[in-house]
TrEMBL record, chain A:
It comes from Marinobacterium lutimaris. Belongs to the ABC transporter superfamily. The lineage of its organism: Bacteria, Pseudomonadati, Pseudomonadota, Gammaproteobacteria, Oceanospirillales. InterPro entries: AAA+_ATPase, ABC_transporter-like_ATP-bd, ABC_transporter-like_CS, P-loop_NTPase. GO terms for biological process: quaternary ammonium group transport. GO terms for molecular function: ATP binding; ATP hydrolysis activity. Keywords: ATP-binding, Nucleotide-binding, Transport. PANTHER family: GLYCINE BETAINE UPTAKE SYSTEM ATP-BINDING PROTEIN YEHX, OSMOPROTECTANT IMPORT ATP-BINDING PROTEIN OSMV. The keyword Transport applies. PROSITE patterns: ABC_TRANSPORTER_1, ABC_TRANSPORTER_2. This is Osmoprotectant transport system ATP-binding protein. Residues 2-236 form the ABC transporter domain. Signal peptide: none annotated.
UniProtKB/TrEMBL annotation, chain B:
It comes from the Bacteria. Residues 55-236 form the ABC transmembrane type-1 domain. This is Osmoprotectant transport system permease protein. The lineage of its organism: Bacteria, Pseudomonadati, Pseudomonadota, Gammaproteobacteria, Oceanospirillales. Belongs to the binding-protein-dependent transport system permease family. It comes from Marinobacterium lutimaris.
Length: 317, 246
């Protein structure tokens, strides 16, 4: 568990972060969101001591991070940033091996770890390991950035707008991959973003910041249903909130038994793992109020009606 | 394939080297070629010192002056690029500029009363003249390391020394080499005027040619100097490419 207690950082008279309190449970993804200059990056950098707080403490699993030298602390915490910052003079292999080398792993251990990570990111070892970063696409560079952050098996990873510079398609694919990897490894991630869609898609908990203050922290669903007046409710979007709420859940959560509807061969179908937003989009597109829901093997496992979708997205009383 | 590639890489330098060796070692066979340029009854080939000796002295002067300049300029640039030394940047910069602004001839004239005739005045002039390109290029090289790369190095837990040796220096190296190359090329040419104060080098052939109105000497000495500069330029460019990242 990561605890930020009364964390404050001033630059001159300006309080970049003002008395911030936040708890992130182990195994969670927490998104710090806000406009530029709201203090979210400063907050993130205080967790690995790139910036020292003016006052307040950061505890990781109950231990004050000031109890160890900053370099040692940082080697235990994964760190991935916008623009990636891969070392251009080193190969993909050497980039990934950076922290394990700093920690003095044996070359066999490092070799095994690099293989493992490239495997995890679905990148072929032979074709990628010995390339220089300049010969990678933006998405590939970002993947290697994540691999480098994960190399020494950290329990915690800090990410500062890691997907900010990517095109929308690549961004979405990497977000999904990240979520899968995070689930698989069970690590805690604290992610800085200004993109509410990204926060909703990835995070278990969203912390909204403005002017150095934490305005609200909640699960994505709670944040969409009950945003605090003002900045937060503007951020989560007025009317579009309904669609964002739908995007939080998968069809399998809400589908009904297929027998409740009269499905025929012409009824369009959708996979159970898709989101409710996808389902509504398909209903509109196909002009079909009911969709057949199919499982992984393609068999019908239920049905979903437009009526049910509409009721879920409704404005809270 | 491999041979062809090697030939393309090194062919130019090889041709220059052969020409250089011919002009230095094959002086006797050059006689008929240079004869028409020399005045009657005067020798067409400079004979007071062997050319190979002169080339050696010339290169030695440049080597000593520029390696000293490189060590000092690089250390100074490193120092002023650290937070602790940032205050000294303007001072270091104006000193390096001063070295470049003083014409080498003036430096020679000033240095002779202080250190006497011989190689010392030339070494001082070349040293001062060589500082600026290396200093400025080292600063530019260190400044060209992308912020994201430096941030990442810090965030991954590299110590300041590790960041310097493993990230900043390797990335700045190509530009530092460019600076050294510029200084070497400039000083190969500039070293010729050292002969006016009795430094050994190819300048003495050219100056003897000017004094005796012997165009053959001037051309012979000038060609060797030019070829040396071209050869070293080519070799340094290869070195830069070798350390380039992209």
């Amino acid at each position: 568990m990561i605890e930020l207690n009364n964390l404050t950082r001033s630059f001159g008279d300006h309080k970049a972060v003002d008395n911030l309190n936040l708890k992130v449970e182990t195994g969670e993804i927490c998104a710090l969101i806000g406009t530029s200059g709201c203090g979210k990056s400063t907050t993130l950098k205080m967790i690995n001591r790139l910036i020292e707080p003016s006052s307040g403490t950061v505890l990781i699993d109950g231990e004050d991070i000031r109890n160890q030298p900053p370099e040692q602390l940082r080697r235990k915490i994964g760190y991935a940033i916008q623009g990636v910052g891969l070392f251009p003079h080193r190969s993909v292999y050497e980039n990934i091996a950076t922290v394990p080398r700093l920690l003095g792993w044996s070359s066999e251990q490092i070799d095994a770890r690099v293989h493992e990570l490239l495997d995890l990111l679905k990148m072929d070892f032979d074709s990628f390991a010995h390339r220089k970063p300049s010969r990678l696409s933006g998405g590939e560079q970002q993947r290697i950035g994540v691999a480098r952050a994960l190399a020494a098996k950290p329990d915690l990873m800090l990410m500062d707008e890691p997907f900010g510079a990517l095109d929308p398609l690549t961004r979405e694919r990497l977000q999904l991959e990240l979520k899968q990897i995070q689930k698989l490894l069970g690590i805690t991630i604290i992610l800085v973003t200004h993109d509410i869609e990204e926060a909703i898609r990835l995070a278990d908990r969203i912390a909204v910041m403005d002017g150095g203050k934490l305005l609200q922290q909640a699960t994505p669903e709670e944040l969409l249903r009950n945003p605090r007046e003002g900045f937060v409710s503007n951020l989560v979007g007025g009317e579009e909130r309904a669609l964002r709420l739908l995007s939080l859940r998968s069809i399998s959560d809400l589908m009904e038994p297929a027998e409740c509807f009269e499905l025929n061969a012409a009824t369009p179908s959708i996979e159970a793992s898709a989101t409710l937003r996808d389902a509504l989009a398909r209903q509109i597109w196909q002009q079909s109020p009911v969709l057949r829901v199919t499982g992984e093997n393609g068999d019908t496992c239920g049905a979903i009606s437009m009526e049910r979708l509409l009721s879920l997205g409704q404005r809270p009383e | 394939m491999k041979f062809q590639q090697q030939l393309r890489n090194w062919g130019g330098s090889l041709v220059i080297l052969c020409l250089l060796l011919y002009l230095t070692l094959g002086a006797d066979s050059l006689e008929p070629l240079l004869r028409p340029l020399a005045p009657e009854n005067a020798p067409a080939i400079y004979a007071r010192n062997s050319f190979i000796d002169l080339v050696g002295w010339h290169l030695l002067l440049v080597l000593i002056a520029i390696s000293t300049a490189a060590v000092i300029a690089i250390l100074a640039a490193l120092f002023v690029s650290r937070p602790a030394g940032a205050d000294f940047l303007p001072l270091a910069r104006s000193l390096a500029n001063l070295g470049q602004t003083l014409p080498p001839v003036a430096v020679l004239a000033l240095a002779v009363p202080a250190v006497g005739f011989g190689s010392w005045p030339t070494l001082i002039a070349l040293f001062l003249y060589g500082l600026l390109p290396i200093f400025e290029n080292t600063l530019a090289g260190l400044g060209s390391v992308p912020t994201t790369v430096k941030d990442a190095a810090r965030g991954l837990g590299m110590s300041p020394l590790q960041r310097f040796w493993q990230v900043e220096l390797p990335l700045a190296l190509p530009l530092i080499i460019t600076g050294i190359r510029l200084s070497v090329i400039i000083s190969i040419g500039t070293a010729t005027i050292g002969s006016t104060v009795a430094a050994k080098g190819l300048g003495e052939v050219i100056i003897a040619g000017i004094l005796t109105d012997n165009l053959a000497f001037v051309l012979h000495g000038g060609l060797i100097v030019a070829l040396m500069a071209m050869l070293l330029d080519g070799l340094f460019v290869k070195l830069e490419r070798r350390f380039a990242t992209a």
